[in-house]
Amino acid sequence: MQTDDAYDPPCSNAAAPPEEIDSLPQPASGLVLVSTPIGNLGDITIRALDTLRHADLVLCEDTRTTAKLLSAHSIGVRCEPLHDHNEDHRIPGLLERLRKGAKIALVSDAGTPLVSDPGFRLVRACIAEGIKVTATPGANAALLALTLSGLPPHPFLFLGFAPNRDAARRTNFAGLRAAEQAGLAATMIWYEAPHRLAEMLADLATIFGAREAAVARELTKRFEEIRRDTLPALADYYATHQARGEIVVLIGPGAVETGSDADIDRLLMVALESMSVKDAANAVAAVTGTTKKAVYARALKIRHN
Ligand code: SAM
Prior knowledge:
Helix content: 40-55%
Bound molecules: S-adenosylmethionine
Order of helices and strands: EHEHEHEHEHEHEHEEHEHHH
Distance between the termini: 87 Å
Oligomer: single chain
Strand content: 15-25%
Structural class: alpha/beta
Number of domains: 3
CATH class of the largest domain: Alpha Beta
Strand order of the largest sheet: 3-2-4-1-5
CATH superfamily of the largest domain: Tetrapyrrole methylase, N-terminal domain
Shape: elongated
CATH topology of the largest domain: Cobalt-precorrin-4 Transmethylase, domain 1
């Protein structure tokens, strides 16, 4: 039997305490962006907890949500709200405290601050003032969904939440499809609310056509699910199954193609719901690589039918 004395660790670095690794020490002051879990409370890093424990102030979206996290780790630190509605107003006072040497941690309700969450304006203001900004990285729903989707991991384009209103969302998707026709070839990623998922997928299927896609739900939680299929199949599925929980939608890169007449008409019908004949024809011509004149003639026919 091997005794402790005889034990030789398989990798001598494995036992090295964190301070012996080439790591950034805890900053004494400045702004620290602290990532928190996106559902599984185990997904918080040792550095994140250390930063929160030694902060003078924690800025958070909802003080009740962050209080739960802090109390689960017995951290008693002052929390104040920072959200889209008060960020601009709060920046001068926060800069003042940071200039005096405070260490301020910024968290969001879940995941990585700034990613579809508040903090961007504060970070820019700190950078402009020469105040140190650093981060303790961690969970992020978009990147986790990307790595689990089976879709090409790069290049990728993270688009946050798509516009809520139908017309704005379709115009936005048509613009992205036009960018693809101009050469963009990336996996695209959106956050979406469950009650809007079916409509969003229907619009994506209409505008981007048949291609690989994925819907990632409840990542890191008990009912984690990644549904991988073609875009029309996912649209059909969620047309009859009400999605629940938190959701990331991904579509794979598409090929640049010249549209068939049927494709052009399908895109025109969507575009004409929110655009003039001329604008719809221009947008669809850009998307399909067809001449504006030919698409305009088809658009006129559709409008007058
Ligand atoms: N800052 C967060 C991050 O780093 O992922 C995102 C915040 S954004 C306000 C919240 C959205 O992220 C949700 O509506 C959902 O689309 C996505 N999301 C957050 N947690 C998720 C999870 N566990 N599974 C799937 N999507 C999630």
